[in-house]
Design goal:
With 207 residues, the protein is an alpha+beta fold. It has one domain: Protein Transport Mog1p, Chain A. Helix content is 24%, strand content 31%. It is built from four helices and seven strands. It has helices at 25-36, 42-60, 96-105, 180-188; strands spanning 15-19, 66-72, 83-91, 113-125, 128-139, 149-158, 163-171. The chain is globular. The two termini are 26 Å apart.
């Protein structure tokens, strides 16, 4: 069995699909609200739409490719999304593993972004080798106070394949995940996980 045969990803239904970035975000949000939170009060709906739009903008800032993105909405009545999860599937050019590993290990803070506790780890999942990149980033913008964002990338290089699966997650809720790298690795391993922060909720199917 090749690494591609071992790839099977599943998300809880609390991860709302934002699409592949090809459709206008307002049209995407219309469908999401109509189907997943049709009874929200007007103020709550406006807040949720604004939060989802921010997460969609984060997704659009990620590297281009065959990508699907999701926003975590644990409770629509709170009028916010709590995290972004996006995955991209494509071809890994020759030497991509070593180049990504070297690039990740060379990360440092800049005048624009301060990195806190950046880590890079090599590991494996059922599909093949993986690189885990994790940090907390503070964006330095003159005159604007921006919240810190926890970020993690898990890049999976399936065995006996030139494919690359890249999972990216980010959140400004720094206490949301007990262990964000472990959460992404378990998704990459095909596990069905509960809602982050809601230990009693398990599974829910693929969006």
């Amino acid at each position: 069995m090749s690494g591609l045969d071992a790839l099977s990803l599943s998300l809880d239904r609390s991860w709302w699909p934002l699409g592949d970035g090809g459709d206008p975000i307002e049209a995407v949000l219309d469908v999401l609200i109509e189907n997943l939170a049709p009874d929200l009060a007007p103020a709550e709906e406006r807040g949720l739409r604004a939060s989802l739009a921010v997460h969609a903008e984060w997704a659009r800032s990620l590297p281009a490719g065959e990508r699907s993105s999701f926003a975590l909405v644990r409770d629509p009545s709170t009028a916010r999304a709590d995290a972004l999860l996006s995955w991209r599937f494509g071809e890994a050019p020759s030497g991509a593993y070593d180049e990504l590993l070297a690039s990740a290990r060379s990360r440092t803070s800049t005048d624009q972004v301060e990195l806190v506790r950046p880590t890079t780890v090599e590991t494996t999942v059922p599909a093949g080798r993986a690189i885990v990149i994790h940090d907390i980033a503070y964006t330095r913008t003159p005159g604007v106070q921006r919240p810190a964002r926890e970020r993690c990338i898990v890049a999976v290089f399936p065995t006996d394949s030139d494919a690359l699966l890249e999972l990216t997650a980010s959140t400004i809720e720094l206490s949301l995940f007990d262990d964000l790298p472990d959460y992404l690795l378990r998704i990459a391993a095909g596990e069905e996980l509960g809602v982050p922060g809601y230990r009693e909720s398990v599974g829910g199917g693929t969006p």
